[in-house]
Design brief:
Elements (H helix, E strand, L loop, with lengths): L14 H23 L4 H21 L4 H23 L7 H23 L1
Helix pairs in contact: 1-2, 1-4, 3-4
């Protein structure tokens, strides 16, 4: 653990970790928007649960709570979202901009998590 400013351990985050935080924030925002659009449906609720998962992961990393475990659990969490997206949507071009942004952020996040897991 690095030195802390209050509860956050921001100085111990590498530039790669910050890329991961940014990617996780992007996908959390996308899931939040989609979840709010369908608050009464199962998909809407699942998107909000996903948002909570991303935000919990970000929070755990920012306070340096078991980061290695967060990275390890994050890989199947994000990978599962990509697999479910393909399975449930069977995307064929054209894919919406929000879907492209979300999946790009998720792919970046998986790469970052693998790199961080390898480094720690």
């Amino acid at each position: 653990m690095g030195s802390k400013a209050g509860i956050l351990a921001l100085d111990s985050l590498s530039p790669v970790a910050w890329v991961g935080v940014a990617a996780a924030l992007v996908t959390a925002a996308v899931h939040l928007v989609l979840g709010v659009q369908d608050l009464t449906g199962a998909f809407g609720i699942s998107f909000l649960i996903s948002t909570a998962g991303f935000l919990a992961g970000i929070a755990a990393v920012l306070v340096d709570y078991r980061r290695r475990l967060v990275y390890l659990l994050g890989i199947p969490f994000v990978g599962g979202q990509i697999v479910l997206w393909f399975a449930l949507n069977q995307p064929i071009p054209p894919v919406s901009t929000i879907e492209l942004v979300d999946k790009a952020a998720q792919l970046v996040l998986i790469v970052v998590l693998v790199v961080l897991l390898d480094r720690e």
